[in-house]
Structure formats: C-alpha cells, structure tokens
Write a structure and sequence with these properties.
Strand 3 and strand 4 form a beta hairpin. This protein has three helices and eight strands; from the N terminus they run ββββαββββαα. Helices cover 11% and strands 36% of the residues. The strands form two sheets. A six-stranded mixed beta sheet has the order 1-5-6-4-3-2. The protein has 133 residues and is mainly beta.
C-alpha cells in the first residue's frame, strides 16, 4: 500500500547511498542514518540469501515509528486498486494484507509492510503484534 511508502531510492552509490553490512545485517546509509534492509526475494522464499546488488532499488517503508527498506528488483508503476481480504486458507501468511484482480483478470497479492517488518524481526521495535493498526 502506497500509504506505507515513504520514498523510493536507488542504492547505486550516488549521494553516498550504498548497501553496507553491519554484524551480518544489510543497511543503507540514507541522509546520515542507517536504514535496516530486508530482501523481498528472500522473504518470499524465491532465492537463497545473498549479497544485494549494488544498484538495488529500495522501497523505504514506515510502520508506526519503525522505518525500514525493502530491496526489490524494480518498481513498475502505481495503480488504484480495490483490495479484497485474503482468503481464509491464506490468512496464516502474514506477508499479505489482501489481493486484487487486475483488468486482465490476473490476481495479485498485496504486500503488508507490517507483516514484513514482523517477519524480519522488528516486533520488539513495534511493541508486539498489536502496536500498529
């Protein structure tokens, strides 16, 4: 959801933006602050964890007071959609907040930044599972 997105940045080394590793965790130095990063591919189980590309696209998201970056391959576009609730068989998957049907009939899942941050281990920063509505 676009409401959770703060900005999109490239980690191509310009303006000092590059992915660094501190104690095995990926971070992005953004305006003199360290932004914790999670890989969307890794969270979805698409690839084994590896070093992110140097020119990665970062979606900076904010959940409550917790700000983090999601490493994605690329951003295509934004689109107005109607979000349908997740089917009951998929409710245990905390990475998704719903689904939508596109104009061509294809169904896509809607990512949930709160679920992603919890999956990445930020629950203690969010004050448990009920901290953000």
């Amino acid at each position: 959801p676009q409401a959770s997105i703060v900005e999109l940045v490239s980690a191509n080394g310009s303006e000092g933006r590059r992915i660094e590793h501190i104690n095995g965790a990926s971070v992005l130095r953004l305006r003199d602050r360290l932004l914790p990063l999670v890989s969307l591919q890794t969270m979805l189980g698409l690839i084994d964890p590896e070093t992110p590309r140097a020119d990665a696209c970062i979606v900076v998201a904010k959940v409550g007071s917790f700000t983090f970056g999601v490493i994605v391959d690329r951003v295509f576009d934004t689109e107005e959609i109607v979000v349908k609730p997740v089917a009951s068989i998929l409710r245990h998957l905390k990475l998704y907040s719903g689904a939508t049907i596109l104009g061509d009939g294809s169904v896509i899942m809607i990512l949930d930044f709160k679920g992603m941050s919890m999956e990445a281990g930020a629950s203690h920063l969010l004050g448990g599972s009920d901290a953000v509505e």
